[in-house]
Inverse folding.
């Protein structure tokens, strides 16, 4: 029972990560894949920050009533990671807008069929 | 108790965002997910990260998603094929491997964990004398690890530049 | 059409200056509480996005021209890297703030962090606004693309 109490929140974080991972690999729609990527990324950040928490620690801002501070180093790394995540999402949406303009659809299997048809027509012409 | 309640609500919101096929509703669920994530981080005493996630996740990502939806279709089509069973199998296997990996990890909140005893005591004790800044996260970001923050700013600048290159169209001149 | 929109316009016109003032507060007070350059920059960018959503792209483009958005996103990175190079000129390593010519090395450390946060805030705000402008630039047939 102590084992479960010590580790249960890691397991919930892994469950959220797997929900995002499933959306990334199982859906055909490109925007749903990006939504899944976002869920996966934020769950990984949650996992990382939970490593930094210590029992009885307060926020890492210097305060005279504090006995122990939380670990500030994961916060720093995750701040940079959140920034990189939003940049990646923005560029991904721009590429998806370009794909829709060219192919007329954003479902992945239809795009693969259209590309095969284009490749066959180009091979016939040349 | 409150963190267990928040985490279960978080998992439910993530599940709803993935399951719904109207992408606008999915985007709004993603925004609610970001807000709940910010609350979970405040509960874990990570105030700077919660501030960033609330402003970036619940603000910018939602607006970008709605703008992207205005350029493409709003509804997702019905799922086809048997790829989803294979995907579910892979996901369950990966989850099982990760859970097996957490067996070795130190207990949650352990003050003798290696993450807390290697290089962090120096940062916690000396950051006030060496930099004079009382927010340890800002002291680490801007002073001890300032080079990483330069890289982060360059990443944002590159994202802005790539969007301009991908999507900007010039006004068509009449005499071209 | 203006009568429908009037509540949104009036409320936005009142709110946007306060949002921008709060963003400036968050950037400058990054070292004594939660906040910092990145968070304040995102709030500033969000205020520009709010103005664009309510008042339309043309009115927002009059207030923030394309060239200004591009220049501001580069100037922030330039400020950041420039502080590092200025530290090289005064004899220290790259981004070693305590050699900058202020009253004392302690004050020089604070001022170095201050300029860096301003640089990050400016870049992030300009890039967030520019990303939204580019993404919402939808060509609907007769409607013109972005007019400078």
């Amino acid at each position: 029972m102590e084992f479960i109490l010590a580790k249960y929140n890691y397991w919930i974080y892994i469950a959220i990560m797997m929900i995002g991972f499933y959306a990334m690999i199982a859906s055909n729609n490109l925007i749903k894949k990006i939504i899944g990527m976002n869920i996966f990324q934020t769950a990984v950040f949650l996992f990382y920050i939970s490593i930094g928490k210590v029992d009885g620690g307060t926020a890492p801002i210097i305060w005279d009533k504090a006995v122990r501070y939380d670990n500030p180093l994961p916060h720093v790394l995750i701040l940079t990671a959140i920034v990189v995540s939003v940049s990646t999402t923005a560029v991904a949406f721009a590429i998806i807008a370009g794909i829709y303009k060219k192919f007329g659809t954003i479902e992945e299997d239809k795009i693969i069929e259209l590309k095969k048809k284009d490749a066959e027509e180009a091979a016939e012409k040349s | 108790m409150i963190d267990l309640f928040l985490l279960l609500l978080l998992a439910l919101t993530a599940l709803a965002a993935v399951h719904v096929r109207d992408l606008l509703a999915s985007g709004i669920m993603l925004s609610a997910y970001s807000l709940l994530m910010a609350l979970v981080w405040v509960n874990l005493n990570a105030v700077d990260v919660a501030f960033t996630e609330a402003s970036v996740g619940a603000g910018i990502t939602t607006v970008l998603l709605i703008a992207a939806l205005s350029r493409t279709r709003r509804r997702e089509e019905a799922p086809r094929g048997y790829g989803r069973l294979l995907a579910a199998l892979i996901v369950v296997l990966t989850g099982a491997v990760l859970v097996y990996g957490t067996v070795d990890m130190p207990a949650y909140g352990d003050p003798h964990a290696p993450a807390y005893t290697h290089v962090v005591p120096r940062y916690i004790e000396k950051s006030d004398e060496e930099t004079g800044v009382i927010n340890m996260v800002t002291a680490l970001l801007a002073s001890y690890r300032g080079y990483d923050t330069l890289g982060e700013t360059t990443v944002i600048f590159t994202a802005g530049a790539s969007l301009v290159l991908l999507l900007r169209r010039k006004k068509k001149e009449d005499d071209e | 059409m203006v009568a429908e929109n009037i509540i949104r316009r009036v409320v936005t016109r009142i709110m946007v200056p306060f949002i921008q003032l709060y963003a400036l507060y968050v950037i400058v007070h990054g070292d004594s509480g939660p906040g910092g350059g990145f968070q304040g920059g995102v709030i500033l960018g969000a205020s520009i996005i709010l103005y664009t959503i309510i008042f339309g792209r043309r009115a927002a483009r009059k207030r923030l021209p394309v060239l200004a958005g591009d220049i501001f996103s580069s100037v922030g990175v330039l400020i950041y890297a420039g502080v590092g190079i200025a530290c090289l000129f005064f004899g220290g390593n790259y981004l070693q703030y305590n050699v900058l010519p202020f009253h004392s090395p302690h004050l020089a450390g604070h001022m170095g962090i201050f300029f860096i946060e301003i640089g990050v805030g400016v870049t992030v705000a300009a890039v967030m606004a520019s990303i939204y402008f580019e993404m919402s630039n939808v060509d609907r047939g007769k409607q013109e693309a972005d007019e400078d």
Notes: Residues 2-135 of chain C form one domain. Chain C touches chain B through 55 residues (CB under 8 Å).
